[in-house]
Amino acid sequence: MPPKARAQRVNVPARFIVEAASRLPRLGIDYNPVTHAYTDAYLNPRSYAIGVDAFPGKLLSQNAQDIQQRPGSNPHHVDNIWQLQCPNETTGWEFSITGRSARGFGPRPRSFAARGSKRLVTTTGVFHDERDDNAWNWRFAVPGPGTYTVTVNRMSGRTVNVTHTAKLTIEDWLMVSIGDSAASGEGNPDVPGTPSGFDPDLSIWDVFVPGLALYHLSKGAYKWADDALDKAVPQLARHGHAKIAMNPAPVWQEPLAHRSLRSGHAHAAALLEDRAKGRVITFLPFGRTGSEIPMG
Question: Which of 129, 130, 99, 128 is nearest to 112 (CA)?
Answer without folding.
Answer: 99
